[in-house]
Amino acid sequence: MPPFSKVLVANRGEIAVRVFRTLRELEIGTVAVYSEVDRGSLHVAAADDAYLIGPGPAAESYLRQDRIIEVAQRAGAEAVHPGYGFLAENASFARTVARAGFVWIGPPPEAIEVMGSKTAARERMQAAGVPVVPGTTAPVASPDEVIRLGEELGWPLAIKASAGGGGKGLKVVRNPDEAERAYESARREGEAYFSDSAVYVERYLEDPRHVEVQVLADAHGNVIHLGERDCTIQRRHQKLVEETPSPAVDDVLRARIGEIAVEATRAVSYRSAGTIEGLLSREGEYFFLEMNTRIQVEHTVTEMATGLDLVREQVLIAAGKPLWLRQEDVRLTGHAIECRINAEDPSNGFLPSPGRITSYREPAGPGVRVDSGVAAGSDVPELYDPLVAKLIVQGVDREHARRRMLRALGEFEIGGLSTLLGFHRALLEHPCFAEGATCHGVVESDLLSERAHQLSHETTTLAASPDGAVRERVSAIELDGRRYEVRALVPEPAYVELARRRRERAGAGAHTAGKDAVVTPMQGTVLAVEVAEGDEVRVGQVLCLVEAMKMENEITAHRDGIVTELSVEPGQPVHIGQVVCIVAQNDG
Questions:
Q1: Run of H or E including 81
Q2: For residue 45, which phi and psi values (nearest 5 degrees)?
């Protein structure tokens, strides 16, 4: 008998589709929820039933606990799976689900609370004998305290949001002069993303490896680990590439960090799938970093290497079943790599590039897997995370997997917007990746950006306008006995007028202000304004922060001068090309 008759997935995009697939294999009915902008999304069509829960902004839809519970009741669901992001690590939601009579497919809310607070987690881990990075276990109250800790622990420091994760609310401070700005920025991000402005400080490890361990724990006291994942290659503390096993971990170290992960999991009476994240220093020291109390984006590489379905294990654990395998039964076979395919432009500072996908073709063949929430014609809205798809491969060893990934990246086609396909090809071609190094500094290098830009034109069909106002027609023709593929980008009338208006607005702003204007390169919401009318600024100085697709972007001065005609304020929505201010030349 299926463990549940029907499960609601309180999420969207590729993770919702991925969970639905496992539920279908278990003969469990599926329920989707969607916002107004997601009406045509793939996850809506993939479910047995789907219900509208509100407007586009997540705060009015995917974060509305009351509406999700109402839908679960209307649909006759027995359980709720939160996916990742949104309400996945929200203890209040877990309790609300249980109080409403549904099974929560995730860890106990008490474990979410302890591990959700990074300071509480550090205290619990220290008490359990788990090694943590030197730093505070209580929130810091001021920039002056940060400076004092820097003098005590040594520079650089990392300021982290107590409730943070995924790089949100994390700022590196290399000297006392940077303390105040980093402190305020970390607090602001903590409040914006997690409704908690508390921050703590720990020693910043230079060029460590980010090594995490997948764990499974049931309600019967059984806890096992499934080996490690190396997630070192990141940009702005956001993971880009993950692999298992780690190139830096041997069998002895794997056993040791696996034991640390199991101890940490037991210390909070955990149940379900989870991840113990850690840092591996250059000297081979392993420190607990945090615990992700949910399924993770990169769970797929562990599935490829172990042959296990982690979502299936989550469902069975939630249904009260004991783990069916023991630690000695776990085997890692070959090597698996995952590349996150985001809607971002690596040639323009990795800015989000929402829009319409005009063409879409996934790679296939031996050892290739794609987890995606899009298809040709799908819109990638600016309201949510820019992740479009995940490409995962498995090979007999790391080099085989690397070459297989390059082949798969070359087959992957996403037209209509900028993605990281070309970036990943450039990265996997680079000697640092082939050698299994950390690639520190390479991800942000101009050389890699140039190569990524070159490859993007080979990999991705770019639309004729930034608004995705085209559709693609593909024909095949023969000329002198040789076959050619011809692509034509045809304007879609419904979008041409919108595209024209946006170009006019951007052009008018640039024309009016000329070379003195600072304009926003993306659509988003102003988080903070760092300057005031009449301020004297220098080139590169931050003028304001704009959030776009859940990422904080700095808008900086392009020249030395005086700020005039400041026209934005916190909380204000902005469009591409909108004038932020004028930086007039200082004639004095």
A1: strand 79-81
A2: -70, -25
pTM: predicted TM-score of the whole model, two decimal places: 0.83
First to last CA, the chain: 81
Residues 6+ apart with CB under 8 A from 394: 304, 305, 333, 334, 335, 336, 367, 369, 401, 404
- 57 preceded by a cis bond (ω within 30 of 0): no
Question: Which phi and psi angles does 272 have, rounded to 5°?
Answer: 110, -170
Sign of the Cα pseudo-torsion (77, 82, 86, 91, in order) = positive
Whole-angstrom distance, CA of residue 17 vs CA of residue 37: 17
pLDDT in tens, 48-107: 999 999 999 999 999 999 999 999 999 999 999 999 999 999 999 999 999 999 999 999
The four Cα atoms 26, 28, 33, 34 give a dihedral, to 10 degrees, of: 50
- Cβ atoms of 519 and 502 within 8 Å: the answer is no
8 A C-beta contact, residue 70 and residue 31: no
**Nearest residue to 6 via CA among 66, 67, 107, 81:** 81
Across residues 1-17, what is the average pLDDT? 97
- Spatial CB neighbours of 233, under 8 Å, sequence gap ≥ 6: 239, 240, 241, 427, 433, 438, 439, 443
CB 361 within 8 A of CB 408: no
**Secondary structure element (H or E) that encloses residue 230, with its range:** strand 223-230
User: Whose structure tokens read 């007039």?
Assistant: 584
User: How many residues are recorded in the chain?
Assistant: 588
CA distance 360 to 101: 41
Instruction: Give helix then strand counts, H and E, for the chain.
Output: 16, 34
Cα of 253 vs its chain's centroid, Å: 28
The whole-angstrom separation of Cα 531 and Cα 534 is 9
With 0-12 / 13-18 / 19 or more C-beta atoms within 10 angstroms meaning exposed / middle / buried, residue 176 is middle
306 close to 330: Cβ distance less than 8 angstroms = yes
Residue with tokens 């600072």: 518
| Contact by Cβ (8 Å): 210, 234 | yes
Helix, strand, coil share of the chain (percent; to 5): 35, 30, 35
pLDDT, tens digit (0-9, with 9 covering 90-100), for 243-267: 999 999 999 999 999 999 999 999 9
| Count of beta carbons in the 10 Å neighbourhood of residue 514 | 8
CA dist 514 and 253 (Å) reads 59
C-alpha 117/C-alpha 270 separation (Å) is: 15
Nearest to 224 by CA among 162, 290, 317: 317
242 forms beta bridges with 338
Q: Which amino acid is at 575?
A: H
Please give the single-letter amino acid code of residue 155.
Answer: W
* Helix H or strand E segment including 408: helix 398-411
DSSP string of 248-269, one letter each residue: T--HHHHHHHHHHHHHHHHHTT
Distance between CA atoms of residues 381 and 354, nearest Å: 5
Token output for 313: 């294990």
Q: Which residues contact 499 (CB under 8 A, 6 or more apart)?
A: 465, 466, 467, 469
CA distance 515 to 558: 9
Which pair of structure tokens corresponds to residue 508? 């008018």
